[in-house]
Automatic annotation (TrEMBL):
Pfam families: WD40
Species this protein is from: Dorcoceras hygrometricum
PROSITE patterns: WD_REPEATS_2 (PS50082), WD_REPEATS_REGION (PS50294)
Keywords: Kinase, Repeat, Transferase, WD repeat
GO terms of molecular function: kinase activity
InterPro entries in alphabetical order: JINGUBANG-like (IPR045182), WD40/YVTN_repeat-like_dom_sf (IPR015943), WD40_PAC1 (IPR020472), WD40_repeat_dom_sf (IPR036322), WD40_rpt (IPR001680)
UniProt protein name: Myosin heavy chain kinase B
Ranges of the WD repeats in the UniProt entry: 184-223, 359-394
Residue span of region Disordered: 20-41
Length: 415
């Protein structure tokens, strides 16, 4: 296992607000209906730490307890994915257990879903929501506030039209395992991740393939044998798609030529004998690709203009256990881990990472993270989903200059 080289982790001072009082607001909204009578499930529980709290313009005592702004409970299983869709936050666990939370009061607005298996990935694009399922299919949902059904199922991928157009031609079948064939437009195992870019939907699967779908008509355009092991994460940036895999590699895919077919542009190598579980890419130039590994490391790469040569610019042991998810907001990299903690890292001009803070509060591994792009006071909102079946909402300050470990039940301790 490689160790951190040349990485400066600075000690910084972080002050965080005390959010300890609890109240339960009335659950009333202008929603029309949910799956049944439009009311939340009996298991639904909403905890808001302090609805009258105002984010301070200056730090408070550094030894005060730090709590999540809200705990959103009501899922029947582990929370596997979170997405932001306009005024809504979407969180999913099982196929029929996708909950819509309305901002800013974070009350349960409605619930939707289909199928019995777990939802592996969730992403929104315009007025559409795409959900990837354990049954190897993608559901397409339309969001409409003018309709009685706020979120309505409009199609399933591969579509019936796409299937019927190919199933009678033997050349459209590929070997998935011994004595078993499938159409190349079908995934042969669970779909683990989704990405959207330039009118295209990308799906990555445990079957090691990356498929490309055209959003206007939901037609499958390509199926790429992308990796030697399961694909765990996807990220799209400026027409390039990055795939992270259990084979320990991140690959960059770009489209070019008249047919716009995707080809391999570069390979980013991680540590030996580990799985890369997540990938995110910075917006600035030069772009930095970050990967989170099963060994608890975060690694960062930078490539040349042609993306055929990559070098590691940072690597740090971020967690005691596997990094399961990541998200980027501005200069801050947020990482969720199997060790039940969330670490926040500040990107430096040199390309290095400095530890900003570590948050504890979930009672299970952190499976998914989403950050709001809108600033709230001197910070941003972070949403986390866990195997403890809860979604938590955190306010992350960005004006601090120190490094603390923030716990839900204990006072802050330095790390």
């Amino acid at each position: 296992m490689a160790h951190s080289k040349g990485l400066s982790i600075r000690d910084t001072v972080l002050a965080t607000p005390l959010l300890s009082s609890t109240s339960t607001p009335s659950i009333s909204s202008d929603r029309s209906s949910s799956d049944t009578d439009g009311s939340p499930d009996a298991s639904f529980r909403f905890e808001f730490e302090n609805p009258n709290f105002k984010i301070p313009s200056s730090p408070v005592s550094r030894f005060e307890s730090y709590k999540s702004l809200a705990v959103l409970s009501g899922h029947i299983g582990s929370v596997s994915c979170i997405a932001l869709c306009g005024e809504f936050i979407l969180s999913a666990s099982q196929g029929k257990d996708i909950i819509v939370w309305q901002q800013p009061d974070l009350r349960q607005f409605t619930k939707f879903g289909q199928g019995d298996g777990s939802v592996k990935a969730l992403i929104s694009a315009g007025n559409r929501v795409f959900t990837a399922h354990q049954d190897s299919r993608i559901r397409v949902w339309k969001v409409s506030r003018s309709s009685e059904n706020v979120i309505k199922l409009v199609d399933t991928l591969p579509t019936t039209k796409d299937f019927l157009g190919k199933f009678m031609n033997q050349s459209n079948y590929v070997q998935t395992r011994r004595h078993h064939k499938r159409l190349w437009i079908e995934h042969a195992d669970s779909i683990s991740c989704l990405a959207v870019s330039n009118g295209l939907l990308y799906s990555g699967s445990w079957d090691k393939t990356l498929k490309v779908w055209r959003i206007p008509d939901f037609k499958c355009l390509e199926s790429i044998k992308a990796h030697d092991d399961a694909i765990n994460g996807l990220f799209s940036s400026n027409g390039v798609v990055y795939s992270a895999s259990a084979d320990g590699k991140i690959k960059a895919w770009g489209s070019e030529g008249k047919n716009k077919m995707h080809s391999l542009k570069g390979i980013l190598e991680g540590h030996r004998d580990i799985s890369l579980n997540s990938v995110v890419v910075s917006d600035d130039a030069p772009k930095v690709v970050f990967g989170g590994g099963s060994d608890g490391y975060i690694m960062g790469w930078i490539g040349n203009q042609d993306m055929d040569s990559w070098r590691i610019i940072c690597e740090v042991k971020a967690h005691k256990m596997a990094v399961l998810c990541m998200c980027l907001v501005g200069d801050y990299l947020c990482c969720g881990s199997a060790d039940r903690t969330i670490s926040i890292w500040k990107r430096e001009m040199s390309g290095m990472l400095s530890r900003h803070m570590v948050i504890q509060g979930h009672e299970g591994p952190i499976k998914c993270l989403q950050a709001s792009p809108t600033r709230v006071g001197c910070g941003f909102l972070l949403y986390s989903g866990s195997l403890d079946k809860n979604v938590r909402v955190w306010w992350i300050p960005t004006t601090s200059s120190s490094s603390l470990q923030i716990t839900e039940k204990e006072k802050c301790t330095f790390v």
